[in-house]
Design a protein that fits this description.
This protein has about 350 residues and is an alpha/beta fold. It has 2 domains: about 5-155 and about 280-350, 3-Layer(aba) Sandwich (D-Maltodextrin-Binding Protein, domain 2); about 155-270, D-Maltodextrin-Binding Protein, domain 2. It has helices spanning about 5-10, 25-45, 70-85, 100-110, 125-130, 170-175, 190-205, 215-225, 235-245, 265-270, 290-305, 310-315, 330-350, and strands at about 5, 60-65, 90-95, 115-120, 145-160, 185, 210, 230-235, 250, 280-285, 320. α2 packs antiparallel against α11 (about 290-305) and α5 (about 125-130) crosses α13. The longest helix has 23 residues, at about 25-45. Residues about 1-30 and about 45-50 have low confidence and may be disordered.
Length: about 350
């Protein structure tokens, strides 16, 4: 069982040098818009039944279904520290890694729905896993009460420097010339690294072999060691290796080029695949049947946190963009759309986890 650690004592600042260039006035204006949206949503929420007055009166556990050190853990600790300060109660990060993140989310789904156990959801565990796992231990729509989205990050397509491919088009040409000869790593079946590459395979019509690992650190280690040739890694954890020259960045998975990597093209433009995009999103969930007033209270606290300059700056340091404010209902509708989207990707690619 993973050790439980306090977000207030274990938050990580990440690499300050990884932050994208930002225009100060635009950032301030965006923050002002977010604050206004939060206030308007607060006013609407207060027209509803008041939150349970005593909540929270003891520490809250946030189940993060991935190991410490990855992007899920980093974002969870940033938001966890802010919520802990706002709610005046410790928010304890409980890392429960395994089975591509589905183990931890299953644990959270079965927790007492009293607001004292929350789940850290992401694209992979909430939207992708239902399409891949035949015997998933939870239904992401029925097992959880959506609270709010937190942030999103792009990924970078990385290859080993020894690979004879200096661009996405050369990588695709190599894969077509030698079907099944190139291996791609992932942090586990159903993770963004896995499904982002499956989407690339389907759109580019190439045959790559999936090698799943128990976490992103192990996948990166084997990419650096040359045991695998390709990895779609979230931007924050990719940057140190790109800067060291130990890996080669071929493309970013965002819709547009990134200020932090201005010379690296998007997958869509570099591979000639219009419409390709992979943005990893993160959000906060509660077990189903958690009292509505508690869900509303947490939604307002999350909106307040992601509107704060401190959280926005720390997200920026990790290459993450704060999510636009959403009500629990809006977040739930977004999740259902994402499930439909990734079910289609799984169908086209034929990806499954037995």
């Amino acid at each position: 069982m993973a050790a439980t650690r306090s977000a207030t004592g274990g938050a990580r600042n990440g690499d300050a040098g990884d932050r994208p260039a930002r225009n100060g006035s635009r950032s301030a204006a965006a923050g002002g818009v977010l604050t206004a949206l939060v206030l308007s949503m607060q006013a609407a929420a207060f027209a509803q039944p008041a939150p349970i007055a005593a909540y929270p009166d003891r520490p809250i556990r946030l189940v993060v279904p991935f190991p410490p050190g990855g992007i899920n853990d980093l974002v969870a600790r940033i938001i966890g520290q802010s919520l802990s300060e706002q709610l005046r109660q410790p928010l304890l990060i409980d890392n429960r890694a395994g089975a591509g993140g589905t183990l931890g989310l299953g644990i959270a789904a079965r927790a007492n729905p009293d607001g004292y156990t929350l789940a850290f959801g992401a694209t992979s565990t909430v939207a992708v896993s239902p399409a891949l796992y035949r015997n998933l231990s939870y239904d992401p729509v029925k097992a959880f009460a959506p609270i709010a989205p937190l942030a999103e990050v792009p990924s970078v397509t990385l290859v080993t420097p020894s690979l004879a491919a200096g661009s996405m088009k050369e990588l695709i040409a190599l894969a077509r010339a030698k079907p099944g000869s190139l291996n791609f790593a992932s942090a586990g079946a159903g993770t963004s690294q896995h499904m982002g590459t499956e989407l690339l395979k389907a759109m580019a019509k190439v045959d790559l072999v999936h090698v799943p690992y128990k976490g992103g650190a192990a996948a990166m280690a084997d990419l650096l060691g040359g045991q695998v040739q390709l990895l779609m890694e979230p931007l924050p954890t990719a940057m140190p290796h790109i800067r060291s020259g130990k890996v080669r960045a071929l493309a970013v998975t965002s819709r547009a080029r990134l200020p932090i990597l201005p010379d690296v093209p998007t997958v869509a433009e570099a591979a000639g695949l219009p419409g390709y995009e992979l943005m990893i999103w993160f959000g906060l969930l509660a077990p189903a049947d958690t009292p509505r007033p508690i869900v509303q209270r947490l939604n307002l606290e999350v909106l307040k946190a992601i509107a704060s300059p401190e959280v926005r700056e720390r997200f920026s340091q990790q290459g993450a963009t704060p999510s636009a404010p959403q009500t629990p209902e809006q977040f739930g509708a977004f999740i259902r759309r994402e499930i439909t989207k990734w079910a289609e990707v799984a169908r086209i690619s034929g990806a499954r986890v037995e």
